[in-house]
Write a structure and sequence with these properties.
Rossmann fold, six-stranded parallel sheet, two-stranded antiparallel ribbon, 5 helices, about 20% strand, globular, flavoprotein, NAD(P)H-dep_FMN_reductase, FMN_Rdtase-like_dom, Flavoprotein-like_sf, FMN
Length: about 190
């Protein structure tokens, strides 16, 4: 199973800290996991071209996402929304980019007031792009961090549950697709 862990911002450290924890949780599973931190790449702004027509970092990031079976997206909340850099990545991809992919979300925010951003802004985009979205997500507040570390034990348990549930959902959906395809004898 090919897993991409996407840290969806070019600034700040909390989302990257959370996604590093996700990578550690993935170590308990037999998967091929790649961490993409948008802060480490120079991504071109979408201009409507096919994602394979871009070069350099932009092509690497989009191709890696397209090759994934599972996508775990980490995003901060900026101005009560997702960062423009993350939205740009979605804009670079085709409309059905997440078809047959299982997608989960980890969101970091300064306060609990932004809890609904996942449901109101991110999930509609993921649904439009045909993702199979896990029902739950992990929301991490400012108070859960200290010195670039997650200090709330409950967050660690919830991240492990999210990783486990995401991989289980992906495997289950794959088996269902294979059963459905086996019904046809051509």
């Amino acid at each position: 199973m090919n897993v991409v862990v996407l840290s969806g911002s070019t600034v700040g450290s909390k989302t990257r800290t959370a996604m590093n924890q996700v990578m550690e949780k993935l170590d308990k599973h037999t998967v091929d996991a790649t961490l993409i931190d948008l802060a480490d790449y120079t991504i071109q702004w979408s201009d409507g071209r096919h994602y394979l027509d871009y070069a350099g970092d932009t092509k690497y990031v989009t191709q890696t996402i397209m090759d994934a079976d599972v996508l775990l997206i980490g995003t901060p909340v900026f101005q009560a929304s997702i960062p423009g850099t993350l939205k740009n990545v979605f804009d670079l991809l085709p409309e059905r980019a997440f078809e047959h992919k299982t997608v989960s979300v980890v969101m970091t925010a300064g306060s609990s007031k932004h809890y609904m951003i996942v449901d109101q802004q991110l999930k509609p985009i993921l649904n439009y792009m045909k993702a199979h979205i896990t029902q739950s997500f992990v929301f991490i507040e400012e108070k859960d961090f200290l010195n670039k570390q997650i200090i709330n034990d409950d967050i660690h348990f919830r991240l492990q549950d999210l990783v486990d549930d995401t991989l289980l959902l992906s495997e289950t959906l794959k088996q269902l697709r294979e059963q459905k395809e086996a019904e046809f004898d051509f």
